[in-house]
Every structure is written in C-alpha cells, then in structure tokens.
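Retro notes (design track)

What went well: tokenization of the new backbones is finally stable.
What didn't: we kept losing track of which sequence belonged to which structure.
Fix going forward: every design gets posted as structure first, then sequence, in one message. First example under the new rule, 107 residues:
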C-alpha cells in the first residue's frame, strides 16, 4: 500500500529549549487542529550520526492516505498556517520540506 507524507526536517536550533517549547506547546497542537485528512504525525528527534554532527535536529512526518489528500491539506488555510508556523519556530534556518510516497513492507 502506498501512502503520502509531508516531511519537515528542522535544522539544529539556536536554542534547543526554546525550540522544544514552541514545537510541543505551539506547533504540534496547531498541526493537530489544522491538518485535515492526516492519519498520523511521527516526530523524530535526531540524536547522532556516524557521519558527524547531524544537519537536522527534528524530522516530522505528517501522513496522509493519498497525495491528493496531502495536496488538499497543504492548500488549505490550516495547512498554510501550519507551514508558516513551522518556518517561524525554526530558529536554525528554514526547515527543509519534502513530499514523499511511502511504501510499507510487512515481515
């Protein structure tokens, strides 16, 4: 089964405590309220990399049942407000935003 997801990769913040507070108390609740059609959010905190300092601090994946559902959400007022907020809280520079298809293989 193929689904779609919006990936937001946040660079290392200038102030981790301030970023975490804004992310948890402001951004995630905003996303939950505004992102119609999403099926889940996976929020990953990058701890280390064998290649040196990781370029990203957090990677958020917002899952949708289809690319059409993702596009509809991204074009909505709620989607635009949530993406604007992601830019606002990203103190280490603008986040990298990607649209991806996900294939799941079960074993």
């Amino acid at each position: 089964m193929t689904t779609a997801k919006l990936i937001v990769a946040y660079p290392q913040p200038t102030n981790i405590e301030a970023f975490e507070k804004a992310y948890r108390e402001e951004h995630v609740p905003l996303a939950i309220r505004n992102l119609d059609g999403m099926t889940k959010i996976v929020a990953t905190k990058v701890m280390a990399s064998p290649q040196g300092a990781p370029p990203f601090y957090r990677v958020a994946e917002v899952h949708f049942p289809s690319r059409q559902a993702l596009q509809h959400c991204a074009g909505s007022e709620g989607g635009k407000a949530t993406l604007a907020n992601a830019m606002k809280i990203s103190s280490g520079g603008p986040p990298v935003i990607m649209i991806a298809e996900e294939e799941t293989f079960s074993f």
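Added context from the reviewer: The helical segments are 16-34, 67-75, 77-89.
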